[in-house]
């Protein structure tokens, strides 16, 4: 079954916007278990894949019950390979619940 627009034409799939590299101030949100060393673990992983990110720009939010913490870290994204490696290492860590 094909999707049809309101004007009766076949719907087209919309492509994700293309990122131009290097991309300054690229946000990555990491949600994890708000344990003592969670923040340091995440920062250490970012330091490997995106050294020189601005510590002053990091946004920290605790969940309402305090079980989870989200960190939004802004990096200069240099390429898809960097982003994939960063996402893979973060996702593989036991303290990390989600990477957005």
Weakly predicted, low-confidence segments: none
H/E element order: EHEEHE
Structural class computed from helices and strand pairing: alpha+beta
Mean pLDDT: 89
Helix content: 25-40%
Q: Please report the total strand number as a whole number.
A: 4
What is the level 1 CATH name?
Alpha Beta
Number of domains: 1
Q: Would you give the CATH topology? A: Alpha-Beta Plaits
What is the terminal-to-terminal distance? 32 Å
CATH H-level superfamily title: ACT domain
From the coordinates shown, what is the CATH architecture? Answer: 2-Layer Sandwich
Shape: globular
* Major sheet attributes: 4 strands, antiparallel
- Spatial ordering of strands, largest sheet: 2-3-1-4
The helix count comes to 2
Rg from Cα: 18 Å
Strand proportion, as a percent range, falls in 25-35%
General description of the model:
It is built from two helices and four strands. A four-stranded antiparallel sheet has the order 2-3-1-4, with helices on one face. The relative contact order is 0.26. Helix 1 packs antiparallel against helix 2. The chain has helices at 38-49, 80-92; strands spanning 23-33, 59-62, 68-77, 96-99. It has one domain (23-99): 2-Layer Sandwich (Alpha-Beta Plaits). The mean pLDDT is 89. The longest helix is centred in the last third of the chain and has 13 residues, at 80-92.
Highlighted features:
single chain; 100 residues; alpha+beta; Alpha-Beta Plaits; four-stranded antiparallel β-sheet; globular; YbeD-like_sf; UPF0250_YbeD-like
């Amino acid at each position: 079954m094909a999707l049809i627009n309101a004007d009766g034409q076949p719907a087209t799939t919309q492509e994700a916007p293309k990122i131009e590299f290097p991309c300054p101030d690229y946000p990555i949100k990491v949600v994890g278990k708000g344990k003592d060393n969670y923040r340091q673990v995440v920062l250490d992983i970012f330091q490997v894949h995106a050294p020189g990110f601005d510590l002053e720009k990091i946004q920290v939010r605790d969940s309402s019950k305090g079980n989870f913490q989200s960190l939004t870290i802004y990096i200069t994204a240099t390429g898809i390979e960097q982003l994939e490696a960063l996402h893979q290492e973060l996702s593989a860590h036991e303290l990390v619940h989600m990477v957005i």
